[in-house]
């Protein structure tokens, strides 16, 4: 497996590793060391960090020369492992790791019998010409004819890939949590009595309705006070912006901004709340438009028994509108209070339904394991091409 990030930054990647480990005798993962590894990996897994330990933000701000050095080192390590081990299957995550695979393919260094599987987590739409990301997008035309499997978390994104050059099997693989993961084993919050605890988890940036949510916190809804936990990575400038709003609305005791925690710990924090914020307001951002199945946090809330509030727009309504535990909000005070009142009044029902939907069909295993079965992964006999 190759990914130009850390697997613990992407819970769906951890899901794939856990499921693959049930079938494979060995899983070797080349990755960028963006953080310390704290996840309890299956014994079949061996991590191969490439380059110095820096955060994704530091990597993004680095000079082009340093970026190229790190990328070359990553490609070399990936190629070396492929040469030594000749794996039955290689699973590549996202664009830069795919560019590494493309280079190895063009150099004739890929074993002909290896199944090549590409999963795209986030789309690269706008890139600077001749940057590594720009070359990564262009490389799709060169490698797609050689790919055997292509998986994607939102069906609307297929139009952005060279599917006319693809000869393998393409499969919808939403970024849902695992039934057998941390969220499937939790004790969930009881019906709110005097307090409704809201949580937003993930990258803390503009476009998630946090400003509007903070403005609602002074109010009582259905006899409940409102409290908000915000947890995830955040730039200091935006942190100061949010704290300024908190002070303006005099809700310092109602808001907690917490740094990111390991995924295994996050599940327990999520379950201590009543409602998850799944708001994405950037309607010109394709990753936001297609986040209903591509954002792992939405169904992570449901798996913890939390109903959600999401932004009322067509691209979100088309999927989330079918669920009784998902409430559309236009971010006005009236819309906020209407959503929260409905949730409080029907909490036990919507909470149980959210978990049941996760358990029955909104889970990672339902999709991922079918792909493994269809493609005989790991294959009992390597095929030649």
Describe this structure in words.
With 385 residues, the protein is an alpha/beta fold. The chain has 2 domains: 2-176 and 364-374, Rossmann fold; 182-360, Rossmann fold, CATH 3.40.50. It contains 15 helices and 13 strands. It has helices spanning 11-20, 56-61, 64-85, 94-106, 132-143, 210-216, 236-248, 263-271, 286-289, 291-294, 296-303, 314-320, 333-345, 347-360, 364-374; strands at residues 2-3, 27-31, 45-49, 89-93, 115-119, 149-152, 169-172, 195-201, 225-231, 255-258, 275-277, 308-311, 326-329. The chain has a 7-stranded parallel β-sheet with strand order 3-2-1-4-5-6-7, with helices on both faces.
What's a concise summary of this model?
The protein has 385 residues and is of the alpha/beta class. It is built from 15 helices and 13 strands. Helices cover 40% and strands 15% of the residues.
Number of strands: 13
**Which geometry do the CA atoms define?**
globular
CATH fold-level name of the largest domain: Rossmann fold
Helix content: 25-40%
The number of domains: 2
Task: Provide the residue-averaged pLDDT.
Answer: 91
Unreliable stretches covering 5 or more consecutive residues:
380-385
What's the CATH first level of the largest domain? Alpha Beta
Which CATH architecture of the largest domain is right?
Answer: 3-Layer(aba) Sandwich
Mind telling me the C-alpha Rg?
Answer: 22 Å
